[in-house]
Amino acid sequence: MSKIGFSVANSYSMIRLYGKLTEQVSKIVRERTKEEVKEALSSDEKMEKFATEVYSKLSLDVKSKISIDVFIKMVLEKKESIMKVGRNLKKLKGKK
Fold first, then answer.
1. Which of 1, 19, 36, 67 is deepest in the core (most CB within 10 A)?
2. How many Å apart are CA 96 and CA 91, to the nearest integer?
3. Domain that holds residue 28
4. How far is CA 56 from CA 1, 6, 27, 61, in A?
5. Please, what is the end-to-end C-alpha distance for the chain in angstroms?
C-alpha cells in the first residue's frame, strides 16, 4: 500500500473511532443526572474522576484503541468547550 493509501486508510479509521467514541460517551453522559454532570464540571479533579467512570463503560473496541490516560487528557483539554454546550451550561447553573 502506498503512503498516501495508508494515510487515507488511517485517517478513515481515526474518523470511525472518533465517531464511536463520541456516540458512546454521549450515551453514557445522558444517563447521568444533571447533578452528577454539574458536579463533574466544577473542577478538574472531579472531571478526571467522572472521565474515569465514563471510560470504564466504553466498549472494549474503543478502549483497546484509546488508553485511559489519553481519554482523560482529551476530556480535560475539552472541558471548556464541553461547558459551552447549552445543555451543559444549564446543568452547571442548575436549570432544567
1. 36
2. 7
3. 3-93
4. 36, 31, 13, 12
5. 53
Segment holding 35, helix H or strand E: helix 34-41
C-alpha cell at 93: 447553573
Question: 76: left (phi > 0), else alpha (psi -120 to 50), else beta?
Answer: alpha
Distance between CA atoms of residues 83 and 78, nearest Å: 9
Question: Which residue in this structure is represented by grid cell 472531579?
Answer: 46
Left if phi > 0, otherwise alpha if psi is -120 to 50, otherwise beta: which for 33? beta
Q: Per-residue confidence at 12, pLDDT binned at 50, 70, 90? A: confident
Length of the chain: 96
Of 61, 93, 88, the closest CA to residue 75 belongs to: 88
User: How many domains would you assign to the chain?
Assistant: 1
